[in-house]
Design a protein that fits this description.
CATH architecture of the largest domain: Orthogonal Bundle
Number of domains: 2
Shape: globular
Radius of gyration: 24 Å
Structural class: alpha+beta
Distance between the termini: 61 Å
Number of strands: 6
Strand content: 15-25%
Length: 251
Amino acid sequence: MKKWIAACLVALGLATNAVAAGGGFPMEKAPNLTNDLAALQNGAKIFVNHCLSCHSASFVRYNRMTELGLTEKQIKENLMFTTDKVGDLMMASINPQQAKQWFGANPPDLTLVARSRASGSYSGADYLYTLLRSYYRDETKPTGWNNLAFPNIGMPHPLWELQGERKPVMATVDSHGHEVHVLSGWEQTKAGKLSQAEYDRNVAELVAFMQWMAEPAHNDRVRLGVWVLIFLGTFILVAWRLNAAFWKDIK
């Protein structure tokens, strides 16, 4: 019985990862911009303008963004558009009942999504970076959008004004004696406000901000870890030489 339960749990985990990754759709590596304050500041602006209207970040306060080099005045003037105070949590303005009616479910909180979407083969940042660059127009869906990384996604394209509209170009290849369709490129059908290179950069900066939001102390933890390793290495060297000096006259 225990083995059967364990097998079921493993199967459930594999199925969950498959759904999250769009049934095996390859994830692209997200650029690492978590040490770039300018990128994080722009990512915060994109998040507030395009995500916060529907998705909360209820474990982060607005004034925490002072750690990104912003003043409270800059946060109030550029990143807050409601009657919220700078010390308040970042809560969505959407009505939960209306959200459930429109999308079928209340949009999830995004504070920890950059960590919760990680798997054994890719990071949560890779998932978000790929997801936001894999939308395409699909008039058969209620929202008018679909996504190769997350087929039948319930969320419409949040950045479509920036990216424009695209459609995937598929190619048929032989795989172990079977014909399969793989993505060979994208065709731009309607221009957005940004070029594709500019859009990719903005998505990378948005994802970097979401990484920071999921663990604001990450970079401090890494830097502290480096100093701890240096200390331990120095201590080992000193202890080794003290040990040699202590035992040199004992045979």
